[in-house]
Design a protein that fits this description.
Four copies of one chain form a homotetramer.
Chain A (H helix, E strand, L loop, with lengths): L1 E5 L5 E5 L11 E8 L3 H7 L17 E7 L11 E4 L9 H4 L24 E4 L6 E3 L6 H5 L4 H11 L8 E5 L3 H10 L6 E6 L2 H10 L3 E4 L5 H8 L5 E6 L4 H10 E9 L7 E3 L1 H4 L5 E4 L7 H9 L9 E6 L3 H9 L1 H4 L3 E5 L6
Parallel strand pairs in A: 8-9, 8-11, 9-10, 11-12, 12-14, 15-16
Antiparallel strand pairs in A: 1-2, 3-4, 3-6, 3-16, 4-5, 5-7
Helix pairs in contact in A: 4-5
Chain lengths: ~350, ~350, ~350, ~350
Amino acid sequence: MKALVYHGPGKIEWEDRARPELRDPGDAIVRMLKTTICGTDLHILRGDVATCTPGRTLGHEGIGVIEEIGSAVTTFHAGDRVLISCISSCGKCEYCRRRMFSHCATGGWMLGNTIDGTQAEFVRTPHAETSLYPIPAGVDEEAMVMLSDILPTGFECGVLSGKVEPGSTVAIVGCGPIGLAALLTAQLYSPAMIIAIDLDQHRLDIAAQFGATHVLDSAADDIKARVMALTDGKGVDTAIEAVGVPATFLLCEDIVAPGGVVANIGVHGQPVELHLERLWSRNISITTSLVDTYSTPMLLKTVGSGKIDPTRLVTHHFKFDEILAAYDTFGRAAETQALKVIIAFEERSA
Amino acid sequence: MKALVYHGPGKIEWEDRARPELRDPGDAIVRMLKTTICGTDLHILRGDVATCTPGRTLGHEGIGVIEEIGSAVTTFHAGDRVLISCISSCGKCEYCRRRMFSHCATGGWMLGNTIDGTQAEFVRTPHAETSLYPIPAGVDEEAMVMLSDILPTGFECGVLSGKVEPGSTVAIVGCGPIGLAALLTAQLYSPAMIIAIDLDQHRLDIAAQFGATHVLDSAADDIKARVMALTDGKGVDTAIEAVGVPATFLLCEDIVAPGGVVANIGVHGQPVELHLERLWSRNISITTSLVDTYSTPMLLKTVGSGKIDPTRLVTHHFKFDEILAAYDTFGRAAETQALKVIIAFEERSA
Amino acid sequence: MKALVYHGPGKIEWEDRARPELRDPGDAIVRMLKTTICGTDLHILRGDVATCTPGRTLGHEGIGVIEEIGSAVTTFHAGDRVLISCISSCGKCEYCRRRMFSHCATGGWMLGNTIDGTQAEFVRTPHAETSLYPIPAGVDEEAMVMLSDILPTGFECGVLSGKVEPGSTVAIVGCGPIGLAALLTAQLYSPAMIIAIDLDQHRLDIAAQFGATHVLDSAADDIKARVMALTDGKGVDTAIEAVGVPATFLLCEDIVAPGGVVANIGVHGQPVELHLERLWSRNISITTSLVDTYSTPMLLKTVGSGKIDPTRLVTHHFKFDEILAAYDTFGRAAETQALKVIIAFEERSA
Amino acid sequence: MKALVYHGPGKIEWEDRARPELRDPGDAIVRMLKTTICGTDLHILRGDVATCTPGRTLGHEGIGVIEEIGSAVTTFHAGDRVLISCISSCGKCEYCRRRMFSHCATGGWMLGNTIDGTQAEFVRTPHAETSLYPIPAGVDEEAMVMLSDILPTGFECGVLSGKVEPGSTVAIVGCGPIGLAALLTAQLYSPAMIIAIDLDQHRLDIAAQFGATHVLDSAADDIKARVMALTDGKGVDTAIEAVGVPATFLLCEDIVAPGGVVANIGVHGQPVELHLERLWSRNISITTSLVDTYSTPMLLKTVGSGKIDPTRLVTHHFKFDEILAAYDTFGRAAETQALKVIIAFEERSA
C-alpha cells in the first residue's frame, strides 16, 4: 500500500509500505477513506517531536472502513464506517477510568507518532473498541474528519477547560485551525463576547464570519488596552491560548479577569514567564491539556443536530496521491489561506 | 487608644491614636479582645506592600465586641462578640454576588492595609454585616482568631482550589503557619497521603503531629525523587505552594501528577518560570487566590463540631502592651519556633 | 396613586391607594414604567396562595425609575432606571451567602405576596441594593420585564437544575409562558434535541418557532412511546415539568433516561406518586426550586448580546388604566393566545 | 464444585454444579476465597427479584484468585488475587464512557442475578479487566469483601449523591449494613453532624460507636421534631434513605432542609407519595442510584491508608460448607445482630 512516511527533519515520502496486520486482540485494521494534516505533523517534520522517529507513517486523523478486527473486538465488524480518534485508549487503566484518555497507560497519542498512522491506505488502530466511533448514517464525512482531533481539542482544551458559559467573555489568541475550532465550539455555550486575536487579517476575517463578536489585529492594536476597553476594564473570563509561544501566553496572563481562566491549547517548546507577583492574588486558573476525546460522543450528536458545522474549517481538497501537494499547501498556510485540507482515498466496493 | 502603627520600612510603634469613629452607615466600631500577627504584616514591615502607607495601624485578624453600629446595620448590636474577617465585603457588588469577596468593588483586604486595622484597642470595620461573624457560645476564642485569615486561607486557596478529595495524594510545600493551616483543613477531605515538605526540622515534626503521613526535609532530600517514589512515579494530585518564592513553585511544577492541581497560596514578589514545554500536555491546573472567606461559616461549624482544632497553631501569648515583643518573637520564628501568637486586650465590663 | 388590589378570591380592583413610603434604610421607592401579570397572580386570584391576604397590591415583576432611596442605599440613586427582581434578598443572611436568595431570611418572594407589589404607580422595594438591577443603556425595556421572574425561573429551575448541556436531549412538558422561557434559555446550552409537549396546538406551533426540534400533542400522541422512539429507547436527559399537576409530573418520571434529571418548575397543589419501585435503580435526580435570580446578571448580559430575545414572549400590550382588561386577556389565554402581557405606565419627566 | 443455588421463593440449596468455563474473550474464571451475603440476596429469596430465575447460583460479592483468563484479558493473570465488583462493566459502551457502569449495555448487576454468582467455589466474571480489581499487598481481605458492594453503595448512592461536605448535617434513616456503610464513608467528608435513625436500639448503639453524633429511636421519638430541634429548625442538608419503604422515604421528605438532598439507597417495592405541594419551592434534590462502583479505586486507597475500617461491619464468620447457616444467621439479623457475615473458602496452593 501507499503511505506518507517521515524520514527525518524536512523529509517525507509517499511510498510503498507493507499493509498493517492485526497484532493485539483489540486491534482493528481500517481502510482509510479520508484523512487530513495537523499542525502537529508540521512540528514532526521540523524535528520537534522526539517520540516520532524516522520510518514512521504520519497522520492521526481520519475516517475509514473496518477491514478486519481482532479476536477481542465485539462491537465493531468488517465493513463498519468509523471515525478514528487521535487518542488511543484502553478504557480500563486508571487514567481511562477517570476519563483522562490522553494519558492511557497503553495508549494516548500513538497514531502517526509512536506507531504508524492514518496518512496511508490502511492503518492498524489499537484499542479499537474505545478509540473508534461508528459514523452515524447521513452525517457529512468531512465533518467527521474534523472530529478526530481538531474539534475535540478546541472544545476540551479551550472551551471546557476554560469554563466558557452563557454570558461570559472569551478571548481566543491565535486564529489558526485550532483557535477557530475553539471559536466554533465556544458558541455551544453562548458567551456574550468572543474576541478573536491574530496577526493575519485573513484569519481575522474568517473569525468574524465564524462568530467572533470582535476581532483584534495583534500587529496593529494595543491588544491589552483594547481588551480592557471592551470588558469594562476587567479582562476576559476565559483566555484561550492557541498558538504555543511565550508572547501569546503572556498576553493571556495580561488579559484574564480576576476569577478567570487561561486555557492553554498551544504546544509549547520553551518555558514562559508566569507573573505570580501580579497574579497570585487574582484568583485565576491556568489549565493545560492534551485532548482526551471524552467529548467525541457529544460532539457527534452536536454535529448531527446541526448546532455546529465543522466543514467550515475545510479549505482545500486533494486526492490521496496528491498528499505531498497537500502538505505543501498546508505548510504555506499564510499564503494559501489553508485551514484544514481533506485528502480523499479511492472508494472501492467492500 | 493604643495602636500599632507602621511608619515605613522596619518601623512600627505602639502609640496613642484617636479612637475610630463610624463613617458609613454600614460600619461597626469593634473593641478588640484578641488579635494576632500575620506573615503579611512582616511583608509590610519590609516595605513590600505598596498599598500600605506610613501612618497605618496594622492588623487584619482578631475578635472583639461591637461597641457601636452604623444606621444601616440591623443584624448586629452593641455588645455582640464577633469574629473579624480579614476580607471586607459589601455583599452586593458583582464580585460579591459571585462569592469572590476578596475582589469586592468597595472592599477586599482593607484592614491594616488601606484603612486602619485590628492591632489596636478599637477598629472601624466597614460592611460590618457581611464582614463580621457572631461567635457561637462556648467556642474557644483563640480558635476564632485563627478563622479571621489563616484557616480560611489554607482551606480555600490550598485545599479547595487544590481539589483535595478522599483517597487523593497531597504535597504541602512550606510548613509555616499557612502550610500547617492547609494541612489541618486538608484532613477534612480524608486524602490518603499528605507529604509535608520544609527546610526546618522542627516544622516537619509539627507537621507530622498535625497529620502529615510523610515529611521530607528539602535541605537533605532529593524531593522530586522522593515524592515520585511515594506515589508510584505519578506525582501528587495536589501540590500546595505555601511559601511564595520561585524555588518552591518550581518544585510544585515538578511533583504534580498528570491531571493534578498546583494550588498557590504563597505571596510572590517576582515571576516564576512555567515549564509549559513539559506541562502543556499534562492536563494540570494552576490556581492562584486571595482568600474570599466564603468558607468561614462552614469552618465555624467544623471547629464547633470538633473536627479540627485550630488552637494547635497557637504557640505564644502576649498582653496587648507587649505587642512589640510579639512582633519580635513572630519575626524570629526560626529561633522562637513561633507559629501564631495571640495578643490579648484587657477585658472590661460592657 | 392607582394600584391593582386583591380583595379576596375572584376580586381585584384598580383603585386609589396611598403612595408607599420608605420604611427601612435599605428600601427604595420605584415609580413603575412597565409591569406584567404572572400565572402566580392568577393563583392568588383563585385563593390558592394563603400568604397573600386581602388588601394586598399585586405584582412582582416590572421595571421603573428610582424615586427615593433609604439612608443605607449607596449604589443606586434617584433617577436610575431599574429592573425589579421578583425575589427580595438581603445579601447577608446564611441563605443569601449560599446564593439561595429565594430563601432569604428577611426576603424571598415578598412583592405582591406579603407586601404590596408592582402593579401600581409606585412600589417600595426592600433590600434595594441586592434586589434591583440597573438597566443597561440601549436594552429593550420589554425584554427587561421578562427578566424579573419568568426568564430566570425557566432558566434556573428548568435549564440549570436540569443540567441541560451541549448534545443532550430535553423534553419540556407544558408550553405556557414558563415552559417557553425554559425553551428559549435551554438553547443557551445547545442541546441536540428539545421536545415540546402540550395539549394546545397553538402553543406547540409557537414552541416550534421558538426552537423546539420536535413537538408532541399530549392529547393525540402516546407521548411516552413517541419520546422513546425519538431517543433510541432511552428517554430524555432532562425532563422539565412546567405545569404543576400530577399527570405531567408522572409523564416526566416516565420519559427521563437513566442518569437524567426531572427538573420541576410547576407550582403543585397536591402530592404526586413517585414510582421508586421503578426509579430506585435508574440513577435519576428530581429537583425542585423557587427561582433564586442568581442568574439575573448573566441573563442581562445574554439578552444584551442578542443571544436570546425574550420579547418574543410578549403578545399583548395595555395602558396602566387598562390593567383589568389585561387580567381578563391573560386569564383567558387559551382563547386569547396570550403569553405575557405588558402594562405600560405613563412616562413623565424626571 | 459446590454452589449455593436458588430454586424459587424460599428455596436455596448448597449443591454440586459444573465448574464454570470461559465463554467470552474478556472473561475470567475466579476461584473464590471469601464471599458474603447481601440484603438483596434475601430479596431474591423472597421472590422479589424477577430477573433472577430458579437454578441461579447466588452472590455478587467477594474476593478470589484468578484461575483462568480469556484471550482478550491482558491486565490480569492466573494467580492474581482480585476483588470482584458487584457490577460488571464493559468499559466501552455509552454508559461506561460516562462512568455510569451500573447501566452498562452488556453488564450491570449480573452476578448472582442474570448469571451465576460468587457463592460458589468458582465463578465466571465477564468483562474481567473492568470489573475486577487487584488486591494490594498487605490489605485485610475481609475489608476487601466489603468493597464489592456495600461500601461503594453507601458511599456513592448515599454520601456522594447526597453531597455530604465538611460542616454539613446528615441524617441516615436505617442503620442496617448499608446505612452503616453510608455512616462510615460519610465521615470521609467531615460533616458536623450525623444523625442515625433506626427502630433497633442495638443498631443505634453500633451507629454511635461508628461515629454518629446523634442517634434517634424511631419507635420512641418524634423524629421530625427532634431533627428540627437539632438543626435550628432547618432540617438536614442530606437525608439518606437506607431502608426502602414508604415511611422512611416520607421521613426524609420531612427532614430535608431547603437546598438539601434526599439520597435514596433503599430498594423500593412500591411507589411513595412525593409531597410536591410542600416541596416544589424548597430547592431540594432527590437522587436514586444503583451503585456504579466508580469509587472503588478511591475506596481501595482510602481503606489502604487506614481512613476507614470496613471490617467493623463484619459480625460473623462461616466456613464455605456452613453457608446455609450463614443465610440463617443473616436472615434473622434482628435476633442475631448480624451485619455482614464472611464465608471463607478453603485456601489451597496455587
